[in-house]
Specification:
- This protein is mostly helical and about 200 residues long.
- It has one domain.
- Strands 1-2 form a two-stranded antiparallel sheet.
- Helix 3 packs across helix 4 and helix 3 packs across helix 9.
- The radius of gyration is 17 Å and the shape is globular.
- The two termini are about 20 Å apart.
- Bound molecules: zinc ion.
- The site of zinc ion has 5 residues, from helix 8.
């Protein structure tokens, strides 16, 4: 009854890096100028892009995917933007897109704190996996916001509020490599809990 399972080993690093580049290049250029439609449309594109790019960066961490597992990785890349709703008191994409400066939760410091809290509340065998999941999901999101917005990535130090394209690409690559490095060992308990029979064999 289970569904198609996609493994990181079968996909490989290069197609994921290529997918990141092929998707990011036109979308980030268009996001910069927002040439047609309105702010709501670009707000939706931005939300989707956070989730989609997040799922690429996190792909090696989860190691293998059913549709449901992919959705977990996908939505974790965009969920940080809930903080905008609290700041602007609106769920309208147009209002959210009007927010000039991102809140302190859009920072690497918050990524560390949230990851630490996530690791605290799970049992020992899941700690590394949950820490890396939460940290990478938030850090890749914050890095991407630094391309187009005033984002306090190094909060409370607020001298650097944006990244150059190259710094952005290097940071995302670093997070992707982190996911790849820790994924193999840390995802095993997670996978064995989700698919016990296959993981034993
Ligand atoms: Zn954001």
């Amino acid at each position: 009854m289970n569904t198609v399972r996609l493994k990181f080993e079968r996909v490989g690093v290069f197609p994921l890096v290529l997918l990141f580049a092929v998707y990011s290049l036109p979308v980030e250029c268009l996001m910069n100028v927002k040439p047609f439609f309105g702010l709501r449309f670009w707000g939706a594109v931005d939300g989707f892009s956070h989730c989609f790019i997040g799922s690429i960066i996190l792909f090696p961490l989860f190691r293998e995917y059913t549709f449901k597992t992919y959705l977990l990785a996908f939505f974790s890349g965009g969920i940080l933007d809930i903080d905008h709703i609290f700041v602007v008191h609106s769920i309208d994409f147009k209002d959210i897109m009007m927010l000039v400066e991102r809140p302190p939760t859009h920072s690497l410091a918050f990524a560390m704190i949230a990851a630490g809290l996530a690791a605290l509340v799970v049992t020992k065998k899941y700690k590394v996996f949950f820490f890396c999941w939460v940290f990478i999901a938030i850090a890749q999101h914050v890095a991407r916001d630094c391309l187009t917005d005033v984002t306090p990535i190094l909060y409370p130090y607020k001298q650097i509020m944006a990244l150059s394209v190259w710094a952005y690409v290097l940071l995302q690559l670093g997070l992707f490599l982190l996911a790849r490095t820790v994924g193999e060992d840390s995802a095993l308990p997670f996978i064995s809990q989700k698919y016990p029979k296959e993981a034993e064999s």
